[in-house]
Amino acid sequence: MTKDWESIASRKQEERASRIPKEWTLPSSIDQNRHDVLGVPRESDILTEDELRLTENYDATALLSGLSTGLLKSVDVVTAFCKRAAIAQQVTNCLTEIFFDNAIARAKQLDEQLARTGKPMGPLHGLPISVKDTFMVKGYDASLGVAAFCFQPAAANSVLVDLLLSLGAVLYCKTNVPQTMAALDSHNNVFGRTMNPINRKLTPGGSSGGEGALVAMRGSPLGIGTDIGGSIRVPALCNGLYGFKPSHGRVPYAGQQAAGLPGSSKVGIEATAGPIAVSMRDCELLMRVICDATPSNLDPEVISQTWKQQASLRLQSSRPKKLRVGVMRTDGTVTPLPPILRLLDSVSQTLSSSPSPNIEVIDIDISPLGPQCLKCFNGFMSIDGGNFWFDTLEKHGESLSPWLQSRLKRRSQKSLDEVRDLQAARIDLQTKALEIWRESGGYWSTEDSRAKKGDRTLDAIVCPGAPHPVAPIDRWNSAHYTGLFNLLDYPAGIIPIRTFGEGDMRGEVPSSPPMNGWDKINRELWTKVDKTVYLGSSLTVQVVAPKLLERMLVDSMKVLDEALQPLRNGRGDKRMSKI
Question: Can you tell which superkingdom this protein's organism belongs to (predicted)?
Answer without folding.
Answer: Eukaryota
